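Human:
Care to share another protein and its fold?

Assistant:
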Amino acid sequence: MKRFPVHQRGANSRDVFTFTVRHWCRQPVRLAIIMAAMLASTLADVLMPVFSGRLIDAVAGGAAVAAPAWHSALSAFSVPIALALAAIAMRHIAFIGLNDLLLKMMSDVANEAFYHVQRFSTDWHANSFAGSTVRKITRGMWALDPLNSTVLVALFPSFIILVGSTALLGWHWLVMGVIFACGSLIYLAFTISLSLGYIAPAASLANSWDTRLGGALADAVSCNAVVKAFGAEIREDERLANIMTKWRHRTRRSWVRVTIIGSTQGVTLVALRVAAIGYALLLWSHGQATPGEIAYVLTSFVVLQGYLRDAGMHVRNVQRSVNDMEELVAIQNQQLDVADRPEAKPIRITTGRIDFQNVHFRYANHPLPLYSECSLSIEAGERVGLVGPSGSGKSTFVKLIQRLYDLSGGRILIDGQDVSEVTQESLRSQIAIVQQEPILFHRSLAENIAYGRPGASQAEIEQAARLASAHDFIASLPKGYGTL
């Protein structure tokens, strides 16, 4: 079978399942309740055909007025009703547990992904579309729902039905059990192999273009002021249409492959039906099977066929969910370029003296260093201006003090403390930066002004606005400092 490697993928199916199991292990009690409830519910389905066959035999074996026949029929009728009600109760318990399990997992995954993204290097953020990153996280978070639902309350019961039905049939007729077992295994092996080797590559490629589409949309919307300034709306429309066309073609390929596999699975189930029912009729023609036993085989096949048909769909859903989670898992597994050392402590700044000691630095994609053997000292309270052409390292100088990048060599000290040996949060919270370009969060003006000092009082916020000659303007707004 031809495979189509997708170079966009940062994680594989094994990584995704390892990631999922790791989160399951955080909630062992809920997981155990879900699986126990689904096991009990599925066993009720396994036993249903047995009592259906007994009901047929009871009806066919005597008149309704005969007391023994009536009691046998009533018993064979009441047990399936009780089993059905028990199955409903168990499924209710399982789904309640699944809801809690899923919501906790989705919250944890989103929080952890956000934690990682917030701490990725400045280079990573500069080279990643914000819209694409958001799409990777949200798509992966929501993929947990179909993945967990399918594995825990769909595929797991299908496996129990396969084993249970095959064992019961094999106990009655060994050959019939072998037919069911072999047919089911061939069907599942066929479905899984095609899903992994035929659908998965196309689905991964479609997802990569879905990410590009989200990035292109976010890029154009966030830079709309520039688009308008150059009258480039039509150009952006054409660019998005080009990406949309490629996304549509690759997504259609993935969907067509799913449709092809669905039809092939239907043919496989028809072949299994012919083999099972044909053998049952052969036994009946030789007087080796009663009408009730024939009904038992038919009912068992109907139950098993439903689970197998659903299993094929479930395998495809799992594969689709895995593809949707690959980029999220890749984010979670990516190592931080600039990370706090295990023994890092908060920085303690008293005066603010800065020392560069034999500093070496170059950007990862640049062959030549930006700083080489740079040594200088800035005294506390001293005012220093950096002058130079664009790209000479003025902004980088400040970023190195903030430790937005790690040095290639040398040290940077603040009050004698190496910035690489203190926590990044404590370091950056002590450094005031006036950005070259004003950036506002979609929050109130008061929250934006107080961002560098979260505990600032309203009076302090207004005083800061006065110093920036912005207080009168803000006060004139309908919602004042509460304006979003």
